[in-house]
Amino acid sequence: MTRVEGPQYYGRTDMLAREEPLEVKLAYGPPGQRQRRSLAVTMRTPGQDEELAAGFLFTEGIIGKASDIKEMRHEGQALAPESSENILLVELSEELPVDFDKLNRHFYTSSSCGVCGKASIDMVRSVSCYFPRRAFPKVTPEMLLSLPGKLSEEQALFECTGGIHAAAAFTSGGELLMVREDVGRHNALDKLIGATLLQGQIPLREQVILLSGRLSFELVQKSVMAGAPILAAVGAPSSLAVELGEEYGMTLVGFLRGKSFNIYGEKHRVVLA
Q: What is the distance between the alpha carbons of residues 22 and 53, in angstroms, rounded to a whole number?
């Protein structure tokens, strides 16, 4: 690449965040009547694809538990073997019903207008598996303010490229439990939730989730599905994100940097001295 400093060009070598498409295919239906269908294509940082798919399926309400997935495997195409790592087949349980008409309506709503008000909140209400507990956990401002620094220390890909989002899970005492990175903020959170789902740690009712970017409706929706009571971010929330968080009694923390932050929704979980 070419770097410009003052009046001159300089040739430099730069490390870039890797981004490739991942197609998620589903195999579903009773024995003897199994069907295959492409569900979605997402642009992601390769790696932890199984966690990404599991988190996506869970937060979209397609599966409700890890055992709804029988198997996940990458599969290639005869004419394009180099694409084998970009196609993931998810074998669902024979007993799990899949309503593709409902899925298509939901995906259209989500992509067409960034999700549309009350109808979208009603959709979340209809598919949510878990609800955050309103009383717990309790955290301190000092603990919350320490989280961005702890996350930064674990962001290896961001340190190299500057182009990666991160999602992390912490205990209410500030202990880092898990970090996932991806070029897409939604993918990073899906990977985090998928990992906890596959490890049997859902719902996340005692944990704090931290995001490296802003708080959008979709990120709050995914956290609601996982039962997370506290969702924090270094950036700002959107109006619909706050509305959804209030609907579920969540504590949303925005602008978490330096020595201050904003609380949107339930403030009682943050205990002042």
A: 9
Count Cα atoms within 13 angstroms, Cβ side, for 116: 9
| pLDDT tens for each residue of 180-212 | 999 999 999 999 999 999 999 999 999 999 999
Q: Which residue has the tokens 């962001």?
A: 155
141-265 shares the fold of 20-127: no
Bridge-based pairing state of the strands 69-74 and 20-28: unpaired
Residue 81 has pLDDT above 60, yes or no: no
Cβ count near 259 (within 10 Å): 6
Amino acid letter, residue 150: K
Q: What residues does each domain of the chain span?
A: 20-127, 141-265
Which architecture, in CATH terms, is 141-265? 3-Layer(aba) Sandwich (3.40)
Q: Looking at residue 135, what DSSP letter applies?
A: S
Tokens of 273: 């001295």
pLDDT at 158 over 80: no
Please, are residues 181 and 189 in contact by the beta-carbon 8 Å criterion? no
In the numeric block, which tokens belong to residue 179?
């970090």
> Under CATH, which number does the domain 20-127 receive?
3.10.20.10
pLDDT at 146 over 70: yes
* 113 included as an active-site residue: yes
Which helix (H) or strand (E) covers residue 148, if one does?
A: helix 141-154
Cα separation, 3 vs 6, whole angstroms: 10
The pLDDT of residue 37 is above 70? yes
Q: What is the pTM of this model?
A: 0.88
Q: Quote the tokens at residue 258.
A: 């330096």
